[in-house]
Amino acid sequence: MLKDSKRLKHHRKSYYPFSKEYPGRSHSTYAIGETRERRKREQRSNVFYALALVFLFLLTFFLVYLAVFLSNRPIREENHTPLPSTEHLVALEMPKEALNGGIALELFLEDLQNENANAVMIEYKAPSGFLSYTSMDSTAADIGASTRAYPTFMDSIETLKAKGYKIIAKYACFEDTLAASSLPGAAITLADGVSLWLDESAQKDGKPWLNPYADVAVNYLLGLIKEAPTFGADYVLLDGVQFPVGRFAETAVFPYADVKGISKNAALQEFLQKVKDALGDLEFSVTLTVSDILYGNAVAYDGTLLSAPCNFITIDFQKTAEVEAVLKANNAGFAELSQAEYFVPAAAAVEAKLETDAKDKTVVVLTNRENTTQNIQDAGFAHSISVS
């Protein structure tokens, strides 16, 4: 047996192209002459390749997520156009139903074109306290301020801006029924410091108001107002920056007034300065009536807001019963005129007052559609907002 085994000749192993060991084949085995070092390099290469695939997947996922996020994001414009000083700002108030889009928006767009308007005033926050848009503010979410928001609000804003219209965001401030009744420590009270003060009797559906001395009220309003540019606003118009007036005003108590130790006028001026700081370069206005401009208001402002730190003043020339009463007490001629006739002498009186007390302020006229843009410009005012 041993002899026979010695006779056995060693045969060289043959390699065929279909053999696993054929040189050049790349599986888990290696070709003839491959070294251990090459094997390590190949393993490292496979690890790097796997990591690269994972990174590419994560990057693709992130980019897709970012694209979806940005497509649903509210408008945010960093550069805001200042209120025109040479061209005329002609704005129309947008009907609420047009915020739903559809035929109402189409009709409003036709109206804008027919009136040669270049701006739109939209109620972002109503005196009821409800918002027309879905706020990102946590306090607004807690009290349900966006529960009546229009689902197509941002679509309507984008449509208007795409057609070149400027957006004026109108915010009702201290006249806020929802926040005054929902936020602890935010409202004007009665003498007991607890019961909510109402601007009318409960039988006549009286409403509570926010207290301009209360930090919780001021901070809530600031949180909403500074959202305006995020939701497409080019300018902000503040309404109701005042203390309440009327037959129940004498019974109103303002908690924290003693702690603050400042006048009503100073409290309102302080609020407006905070608004200015919050909005940065975005221009804003405060709304005053004709009688406010001419005679001030001791109850609402403890004087006047003509020196307020806002960029421009919006003067409400609408002839209301309250304005008529004040004007009649000082000049009977105003109260006996129609809206269109009343505007001419009222505008002249306001112009003279502003020339003396507020020469640096740009003025925007808020008036009924009865007053044409030409009438307003003939009276010396370049900018106007017409309401229905």
Account of the protein in words:
It is a single chain. This protein is an alpha/beta fold and 388 residues long. It has helices at residues 2-7, 36-71, 102-114, 138-143, 153-162, 177-182, 215-225, 257-260, 264-279, 290-295, 321-330, 332-335, 339-357, 373-378, and strands spanning 90-93, 119-125, 166-172, 235-239, 283-289, 312-316, 362-368, 383-387. An 8-stranded parallel beta barrel has the order 1-2-3-4-5-6-7-8. Helix 3 (102-114) links the parallel strand 1 and strand 2 (119-125). The model is unreliable at 1-8, 15-20, 24-28, 67-73 and 75-81 (pLDDT under 50).
Low-confidence stretches: 1-8, 15-20, 24-28, 67-73, 75-81
What structural category arises from helix and sheet content?
alpha/beta
Mean of residue pLDDT values: 83
Shape: globular
Could you estimate the helical fraction of the residues in percent?
25-40%
**What is the number of strand segments?**
8
What does the main sheet amount to?
Answer: 8 strands, parallel, barrel
Name the strands of the widest sheet in spatial order. Answer: 1-2-3-4-5-6-7-8
List the helices and strands and how they pair.
Blueprint: H1 2-7, H2 36-71, E1 90-93, H3 102-114, E2 119-125, H4 138-143, H5 153-162, E3 166-172, H6 177-182, H7 215-225, E4 235-239, H8 257-260, H9 264-279, E5 283-289, H10 290-295, E6 312-316, H11 321-330, H12 332-335, H13 339-357, E7 362-368, H14 373-378, E8 383-387
Parallel strand pairs: 1-2, 1-8, 2-3, 3-4, 4-5, 5-6, 6-7, 7-8
